[in-house]
Amino acid sequence: MEIFYEITPLKKKLAALKSQSKKIGFVATMGALHAGHISLVETSNRENDITVVSIFVNPTQFNNKEDLEKYPRNTEADIRLLEDNECDIVFIPSVEEMYPEEDTRVFELGSVAEVMEGKFRPGHFNGVCQIVSKLLDIISPDNAYFGQKDYQQIAVVKAMVKKYMPKFKGNIVPCPIKREADGLALSSRNSHLNPEQRKSAVLISKTLFKVKEMSDNGATQKEITDFVKKNIATDANLCLEYVEIADKDTLLPVEGNLPVNAVVCVTVFDGSTRLIDNILL
Ligand code: AMP
């Protein structure tokens, strides 16, 4: 496994690989890697000749300075984990390398970036688009893998690529959510949970699994959102920020009887840790 800290040598390496017709898969991460990230690496390994993983805690996507400061960082362990999982190239740039000057680009993507996380984390998706566009531009992968854990992020990245990167010919590939044995969606932020909060967190996925069952049995949007609110409120550690049932492509809210192609997205504070999860109906 080769590690690059700078753009120019990485591009040179990738150009050499591409000249040998090697297929490149790419996984963008913010580090503190876990089995969810590794599932993306494994998919990339299966579908490409070379897997590139980036580790970069992107400051422009944090709308909360404290959240950025306390975001878990563990580069040495990340490198070991990637080595053990047959990653070929790791890119670990500094903030100065990625943003030699302030990125003032504003991505206008309409409702897909304005609902849910767009509403509750103003500026978040603009920062995501800034970094993802830079990384896709540098690496120019054949396939870029994103987890459905961040369901809306995939829709935003697809819309960004379509509108702002017409020359990008790679695929944006969604990958399923990897969960703990008890159902909790893996997340770097889970490391912030104390044992009691960790126990409480299980109720989030449990609630979503129940929602799927309710939807299969014909429940309406209102019945489901009422259930989620009530169920999450039963645990004193949890505080629901939002529950939204959205069209799986447009992410616009759906009401009344549910279509099959909807996604239920929730954001829950467990203590001061903000956790997101979702389930496709
Ligand atoms: P992050 O490091 O949180 O920015 O995540 C990097 C990539 O890993 C994103 O595409 C995430 O959606 C994906 N990811 C994070 N957690 C999971 C998970 N539990 N299952 C699948 N993919 C995940």
In which order are the strands of the major sheet placed? 1-4-3-2-5-6
Elements, N to C (H/E): EHEHEHHEHHHEHEHHEEE
Q: What is the correct CATH architecture of the largest domain? A: 3-Layer(aba) Sandwich
Largest sheet: 6 strands, parallel
- Please provide the count of β strands: 9
What is the rounded distance between the termini?
39 Å
Compute the gyration radius: what is it?
19 Å
Query: CATH H-level name of the largest domain... which superfamily?
Result: HUPs
Shape verdict: globular
Give a verbal description of the structure.
The structure is a single chain. By secondary structure, this protein is α/β, with parallel strands linked by helices. It has two domains: 2-175, HUPs (Rossmann fold), CATH 3.40.50.620; 188-280, Pantoate--beta-alanine Ligase, Chain: A,domain 2. Helices cover 40% and strands 20% of the residues. The protein has ten helices and nine strands. It has helices at 7-19, 35-47, 65-69, 75-84, 95-98, 117-120, 124-139, 151-164, 195-216, 221-232, and strands at residues 2-4, 24-29, 50-55, 89-91, 143-147, 171-175, 238-247, 262-270, 273-280. The strands form two sheets. It has a six-stranded parallel sheet with strand order 1-4-3-2-5-6, sandwiched between helices. A three-stranded antiparallel sheet has the order 7-8-9, with helices on one face. Helix 2 links the parallel strand 2 (24-29) and strand 3. Helix 7 (124-139) crosses helix 8. The longest helix has 22 residues, at 195-216. It starts with a strand and ends with a strand. The mean pLDDT is 97. Bound molecules: adenosine monophosphate (AMP). Adenosine monophosphate binds at residues 29-30, 36-37, 39-40, 146-147, 149-150, 175, 177-178, 185-188.
